[in-house]
Amino acid sequence: MKVYKVLTTAVVVSMLGSVVAACGKSDSASPSTSPSSGSNSSAPAAKQEIKINFTAEPPALDNSKATTNASFTMLNAMNEGLYRLDKDGKPVAGLAKDMPKISDDKLTYTITLRDNLTWSDGSPLKASDFVSSFQRTLDPGTKAQYAFMVAWLKGGEALLGAKTPDEIKAKKAELGVKAVDDKTIEIKLEKPVAFFTQLLAFPLFFPQKTDEVTKQGESYGKDADKVTGAGPYILKEWAHEQRLVFEKNPKYWDAANVKLEKITMNIVKDRAGAVNLFETKEADLTEINGDFVKQFEGKPEYTIKKELTNSYLMFEQKKAPFLANKNIRQALTMAVDRKAHVATVLKNGSVESTGLVPVGTSDGNNGDFRKLSGDIQPKYDPAKAKELLAKGLQELGMTQLPSFKLTTDDTEGGKKSLEFIIAQWKQNLGVTAVADAVPHELRVDRQHKKDYEALIALWGADYNDPMTFLDMWTTTSEFNETDWSNAQYDELIKKAETEKDPATRAKQLADAEKILMDEMPVGPLYFRSKVYAKRTNIDGLFFPSFGPEFELKWVSIK
Amino acid sequence: MLKFIIRRLIYMIITLWTITTATFFLMKNLPGDPFGEAKQKLTKAQLQILYEQYGLDKPLWQQYLKFMGDALKGDFGVSFQFPTHKVTEKIAQAFPASLELGLWALIIAVVVGIVLGTVAALNHNKGLDYSAMFTAIVGVSVPSMVLGPLLSYYVGVKLGWLPPLLWDTPKHRILPAITLSFGTIAILARLMRASMLDILNQDFIKTAKAKGLSRFVTVFRHAVRNAILPVITALGPIAVNLVTGTLIVENVFSVPGLGKHFVQSIYSNDYTMIVGLTIFYSSILIFVLFLTDILYGIIDPRIRLAKGRK
């Protein structure tokens, strides 16, 4: 009993002690006199260091398993493919010495590596490191979610679908990639891919240090010390969910043109927090959105990143049969003031759509597809939209459009867009639609199952070519989740898929887009952009329109 | 005591199994699958390959048995969101930051809450009582999603006294810990006040005063010691809540903790992560409740005696 008394008293006394101590501590820790920590404000401008806020932790720094732009961005800083995209999105020689030699049938690419290439640890980088990387991505055991991109290779799909270890081994041997010698790679494709050279700059096509992959096994790419690159920077530290620190790679083949000595990427998800860090000079580059955009508008730090991502209305023609009427689809698309939508709802630098394929998409013939195709989407015109609706209703023998659901993601932006579009339809057409905001996963699932009436979707490019936005609307495409079908459109896409002359192919794709804008199975809304705050002394940074978030190789601090 | 502990352990295992099983089947009822972004780009055949690779093509009962078999070996599988990480590794990575933040918040909350509650009770219906309770009400009323950004902006950016966010030095811990402790301070202060008022009116306190014991001894040796029992009872679940991560505070201050994973794993249908976190969270909660019971026995001999009689 006494023991308990003593114990209890001790508990109470120690608690009291902690009260006093805590009070004392908080007094002594009174921070009013301490300067803000680690501020860079007085650093000389020539210090080649940069701090960046990044919105997400990279899920994996294993280029076989990478699926998010966080992973692509980090991998692109620490490693390199045969090619790297320059600020115009054109492939320039990376680990390859020069452009590929392409056979006449456009199926075989022969590529020579630069001399004396090494990994950042000094060990030699060989052609076989590319071969083993491609094979590993397509090996079913790797469970690579983006393997479909590497499956363009001859025998890629077959390897992906292999079931037994023996079959996997056999299919790997048959895969269309060979190391002719230590410096020569030969890639064979299943069918011509007009943009394949550009695709080789994508992280999925980076080499892997073969012996390291073998040694690390499942852990490859999990931590800073479990992945080696051959890119401009070395990953020195990776405090998960917190920060990644890169330093210049002195063994990089082009180290002479790499100016930055250190890059710190802090993982910051909160938009207000990101701005706070920028304000306190703890970040030199940060994405901003929502109401913060206004704060930076007109300032020299305000920077727009155009993306190859479009957003559009989808109309499911079997679920809501009245949406099978072209005039009604045209009316619903035309009745949305797209300019007001980007200016008042999105406020993130996005621009109104002028077709389905976003601005900045190459036409596959060294030109800009949007310029070639022109502004072919009908302008916002409530009066004309009303006429089209009346015409459509007459064709269907209806007096008014039944109420239907408009589905999209339940993100802040998604919900605002829903409200805006539904209000526009009500106001301009007298049409009633019901808002249906659901979690992203559920939206994707419903879209996949065609379990929706109308839906707002987003599509980001996998490569810089109009095909990534257009081939999905053919009758047989699994990504055509609208039940729309058009033989002429199918024919044009089919021709373009095998057309060897880039100019003819670009024309075919432009014609296909015109059919889409006339038929309107999907009603484009906007081409997405992001807004960044970027210090004015940062030079040479640019934003690729797909894949990595930004390109850091050529960055310097003025 | 040993019998009591063994019985409690058996209950704990049954509870844990029930929670895990329920979570497993409920989670499988979530619409969609864990392949989020990639799913938009994959054909049905490619998706089928992925399902096969992850064993998601098997009947549900087979998936369940395989999962339970692995879980018993301590293997919850690989996270779908972080394909190079096992779930246990992801939890091990994120938990220390949440634990540290939670412990700081808990210390602040316990100290300030108990002091506020005691002061309020001792000055019942006087100015100090009203101001202490007003502070507590403000604490309960202002959510961390408001307080966090305000502190981050004014203390971090405007005044420059402390780092506005990130998780590097001890200084970086202060603002998130204060934000996280705010609501708990209020709960504990009100609980302590009510409990103290109840105890102060008991006969044994009057006896202590009549015996001529000093106010200090009366309050701390007799009143606080008894009044703190309900606080300790509440402290178990509160502590678990604080140390297992909080989405809002961790987001606002960019703390690399567990909080976001609870929400994110559900949003992205990361099956392995959902179950792993559920087991982790439940285990901690069950264990803390168990500890609370034992601590109770130590502080209040009557409880111990009652258990002994059983």
Notes on the structure:
Chain A: Residues 90-479 form the Solute-binding protein family domain. The complex is a heterodimer of chains A (558) and B (310). Helix content of chain A is 34%, strand content 19%. Chain A contains 18 helices and 19 strands. In chain A, strands 11, 12, 13, 14, 15, 16 and 17 form a seven-stranded mixed β-sheet that branches. In chain A, strand 2 (83-85) and strand 3 form a beta hairpin. The N and C termini of chain A lie far apart (74 Å). The mean pLDDT of chain B is 86. Chain B contains 14 helices and no strands. Helix content of chain B is 78%, strand content 0%. By secondary structure, chain B is mostly helical. The radius of gyration of chain B is 24 Å and the shape is flat. Chain B has a domain at 88-267: MetI-like fold. In chain B, helix 1 runs antiparallel to helix 13, helix 5 (87-122) crosses helix 8 (171-200) and helix 6 (127-141) packs across helix 8. Chain B has helices at residues 2-28, 36-41, 44-54, 60-72, 87-122, 127-141, 144-158, 171-200, 203-210, 215-243, 247-252, 259-267, 271-299, 301-309. Chains A and B meet through helix 1, helix 8 and helix 15 of A and helix 2, helix 3, helix 5, helix 7 and helix 10 of B.
